[in-house]
């Protein structure tokens, strides 16, 4: 540090549990005739909806996306598409958005039960979020600044000085990682893959020396 001020880096960490989850499942139907494909997809969608409702999902947590239709053409001996239609591939995404993270996490693990009903569902990995992020950032900034002040006091004390008023404070990175992660990023990360997360905040603070 200089004769006039001392600059230190403070940090704070906290473990949190996600309070919001988004899960996407895609129903897939392949048929030779388009009308048959639509009819069967509609039936599979209703079965999927009833399955989710039986697991405790409510309608307001469900988002049903439009059907996506893909025409499948026959291949020639070189593996290239011909003009002859082989059939149709229809997909329809079903999304759950819920604050009941435990309920939805359980559903994502058990969704293969739909396959037992003859429904082809492609399950995507759930995404986990923390909705009170602004409040959390403020809390972590306060803790990191307190940590920086303690470090500055210890360093000044070692040389027989005392710290005075805070001259400046700059927010460093703010990152959210899986609770078991040891990664540190200069630009910060925001993990959405894990239910349990670890939050880390870093701040650089300068204090006057008395």
Describe this structure in words.
This protein is an alpha+beta fold and 210 residues long. The chain contains four helices and nine strands; from the N terminus they run ββαβββααββαββ. It has helices at 34-54, 101-110, 113-116, 133-158, and strands at residues 5-17, 20-31, 62-64, 68-75, 81-98, 120-123, 127-129, 163-178, 196-209. Strands 2, 3, 4, 5, 6 and 7 form a six-stranded antiparallel β-sheet that branches. It has a three-stranded antiparallel β-sheet with strand order 1-9-8. The chain is elongated. The mean pLDDT is 92.
Write the layout of secondary structure elements.
Blueprint: E1 5-17, E2 20-31, H1 34-54, E3 62-64, E4 68-75, E5 81-98, H2 101-110, H3 113-116, E6 120-123, E7 127-129, H4 133-158, E8 163-178, E9 196-209
Antiparallel strand pairs: 1-9, 2-5, 2-6, 2-7, 3-5, 4-5, 8-9
Highlighted features:
210 residues, alpha+beta, 6-stranded antiparallel sheet, 3-stranded antiparallel sheet, 4 helices, 9 strands, elongated
Number of helices: 4
* Global shape: elongated
What's the number of extended β-strand segments? 9
Q: Note poorly predicted spans.
A: none
Largest sheet: 6 strands, antiparallel
- Helix proportion: 25-40%
Sequence of secondary-structure elements: EEHEEEHHEEHEE
Distance between the termini: 13 Å
Provide mean pLDDT, rounded: 92
Q: Which structural class matches the secondary elements?
A: alpha+beta
What is the rounded Rg?
Answer: 27 Å
| Beta-strand content bin | 35-45%
């Amino acid at each position: 540090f200089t004769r006039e001020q001392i600059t230190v880096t403070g940090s704070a960490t906290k473990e949190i549990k996600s309070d919001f989850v988004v899960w996407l499942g895609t129903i897939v139907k392949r048929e030779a005739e388009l009308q048959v494909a639509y009819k069967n997809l509609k039936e599979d969608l209703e079965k999927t909806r009833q399955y989710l409702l039986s697991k405790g999902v409510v309608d307001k947590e469900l988002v049903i996306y439009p059907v996506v239709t893909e025409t499948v053409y026959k291949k020639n001996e070189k593996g290239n598409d011909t003009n002859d239609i082989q059939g149709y591939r229809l997909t329809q995404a079903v999304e759950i958005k819920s604050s009941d993270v435990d309920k939805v996490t359980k559903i994502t693990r058990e969704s293969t039960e739909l396959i037992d009903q003859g429904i082809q569902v492609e399950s995507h990995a759930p995404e986990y979020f923390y909705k009170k992020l602004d409040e959390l950032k403020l809390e972590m900034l306060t803790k990191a600044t307190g940590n920086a002040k303690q470090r500055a006091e210890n360093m000044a004390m070692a040389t027989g000085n005392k710290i005075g008023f805070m001259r400046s404070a700059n927010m460093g990175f703010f990152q959210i990682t899986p609770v078991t992660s040891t990664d540190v990023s200069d630009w910060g990360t925001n993990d959405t893959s894990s239910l349990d997360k670890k939050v880390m905040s870093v701040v650089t603070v300068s204090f006057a020396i008395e």
